[in-house]
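DATA SHEET
Item: assembly model
Revision: 1
Owner: S.N.
Input lines:
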Amino acid sequence: MIRKKVDTVTQALEGIQSGMTIMLGGFGLCGIPENLISALAQSSHKNFTCISANVGVDDFGLGLLFNQKKIKTMIGSYVGENEEFERQMLSKEIDVILTPMGTLAEKCRAAKVGIPAFFTPAGFGTEVAEGKEIRAFNGKQYLLETAYQADFSLVKAWKGDETGNLIFKGTARNFNPLMCGAATITVAEVEELVPPGALDPNEIHTPGIFVDRIFQGEQYEKRIERRTVKYP
Amino acid sequence: MIRKKVDTVTQALEGIQSGMTIMLGGFGLCGIPENLISALAQSSHKNFTCISANVGVDDFGLGLLFNQKKIKTMIGSYVGENEEFERQMLSKEIDVILTPMGTLAEKCRAAKVGIPAFFTPAGFGTEVAEGKEIRAFNGKQYLLETAYQADFSLVKAWKGDETGNLIFKGTARNFNPLMCGAATITVAEVEELVPPGALDPNEIHTPGIFVDRIFQGEQYEKRIERRTVKYP
Amino acid sequence: MALSKNDIAKRIAQELRSGYYVNLGIGIPTLVANHIPKNIAIEFQSENGILGMGPFPKEGSEDADLINAGKQTITALPGASFFDSALSFGMIRGRHIDLTVLGAMEVSETGDIANWKIPGKLVKGMGGAMDLVSSAENIIVAMMHTDPKGASKLKTKCSLPLTGVKCVKRIVTNLAVIDIVAEGFLLKERAPDVTLEEIKEATEGNLIIPAEVPVVKL
Amino acid sequence: MALSKNDIAKRIAQELRSGYYVNLGIGIPTLVANHIPKNIAIEFQSENGILGMGPFPKEGSEDADLINAGKQTITALPGASFFDSALSFGMIRGRHIDLTVLGAMEVSETGDIANWKIPGKLVKGMGGAMDLVSSAENIIVAMMHTDPKGASKLKTKCSLPLTGVKCVKRIVTNLAVIDIVAEGFLLKERAPDVTLEEIKEATEGNLIIPAEVPVVKL
């Protein structure tokens, strides 16, 4: 069997260079690759183009990268909740490309599975459609969207084995499986790294072929963005 | 919660009419909806267009439908192993449309997820490309393929709950999840039907939203097409 | 008496039918979940990857790995399932969701909706809204009839950047229930003690007032 | 002495590198699995939905839900995973498979391959072959050098309907190991006791014979 385990987050990020395009899994602060983001924030590299649904909060998630001015272009879908990001966007220090969330998901998946382009209805008649090919199928209008191209995918799973197989938990799955295999190199951090054979092959969400490096994160804060409870 | 359970295979097939387009899950005889196929073979309806990877064998799987002359058009990928099918094909009693298997899978998935068309490299430069739009992306040539349109999807899962959630087993998964939700009505038969909540929400392969009717099959032969063993 | 936000949600809850898969947007739409009629079997989808979403958790049982699209902690009901964002938006784009309820800044008399961007103001992004409005067959907008300055949000033509075109089927506001028909805004119901004149006054687009306009029943 | 089918498989097994995900077609390619070099870590994918495919099961432990693309019963090794056909062909189309070995009826000197249809004969369909050859970056064809009637299967141009164009990188036959290069078929190795003349005779397309042509080592 093929083993993908690396021992440190430094090894996991080997080859990352300034100017690269990096996909990052997660929705809000849920399912984000915490250890990889921290290491990237502390690295000497910068000018990244990042593809991620959201932009974190001021002191966590992608916020750590914005604080270190690591990102020059942000491709995302909903970019609220982060003041430093907003400051950089308003002062035009960074470029921001906004994409319908389902289109973002499908563009990642397309890159993963070798589909160069597909049609989607999202954004027809809006500024998202500007410059894109429009075509009708069965009387409905669609835009042509193309697959992303990225150098690194950084994802986070719940459990993984040394061959790179991944299992996600709850809504922390989100964009993570779609980004696995969507970039030249996919790095997965997991809460629990188990030996090959410890995961039921029927329950694996992402087969190891889509993962190049895997490691167990040193620690997980798993911060809750909006703790909401039912009042008794 | 929304319940999808029906009690009999007759209820499961309610609304099927002659001339309809029907998707059937399975690869070879693995993961085929045995009970639904039997009931369809015994029904009074005919002239179906069937979409399925293969055509079964003479006395099992889709073979039962060919024996009853139920199919007028077969859309599939590999159509060996069935003499009655071959006879009907050679005598032009049926139309046969052959599709690369990955394209067939993606056309089902596209129908399921509301993608009307996508580009794929499979078949470029071959007769499969005839009449299709060709376009280059990043220097490589691709064909435009469109989503299937079907009236019924008949699939088979290992376990299911009454809300329609499905879990498949081993390589019996194949086309089944892709056909769920790809037709107007999706009918799933399962080996074991459990109450809602009995399946771990993290382990569900196909959420119940993609399934309209579910029932536990009366019996499963699960015939092995090519029993091959390691000689001791 | 105009409807409260809670009343708007209560009225929209009357649109629920047994067997509906429902996606609720942030704001007033979220409140719809508090008013599900008895004996109605529905399931809520949240586009970040859950079907069968339940109420907020009890204090102490919040799970960081279990949130809704508004990033709030939630619970999963029996029969729930988790999935990735491609399959989640596949449910939306593939028209498997039976009812979508969302807020809006403006709706036009042709059913266009604007709810994601105000030029010159901070843009937060469209999130899943464009996928939802371009695909759903049954979209109800929940919003106030006018903006805080008193300007109508029911326009002849949207002035703000669009989220989607010709997609809204029904609008429930603090003043009225209105359907989008070929000729414009068709007044279906009015809030208690709100006059037809007040509704007409608050509606910029073409308002069609039938002979009988019943009062909203809550 | 020409290579046996087993020898062809043995020679192709030398192309395996640690870390390779490999898809083996039906026929001679299947035999490659019997000759994996020691200390090489590879995994086999079967396009019907398994990665980490193991050998045939012991008698009595066959599982109808566990087959390969040739519909034979198989086993799953530790670290294996199961998945649907869209993800499976996603592995193929997305170029995640490192080596694809398949049989052919004809290969042209430009790397075109025909292996699915003989006009006038019964057509069984292309199955996954078109997906494989249109996507794989590293395709080795395993076949006999000539057909049963003695006609060359290494052609100037394929006469049969194509499966894919300009995709084959290397051919291993009973007579030789041949690479596809810009000028045509480049002879890399010859079978023991097979003369260059015999290979030339059996090759219809342009055969480039370098000064040194080593004998295949098994």
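QC remark: Helices of chain A lie at 9-12, 34-42, 63-67, 83-90, 101-113, 176-179.
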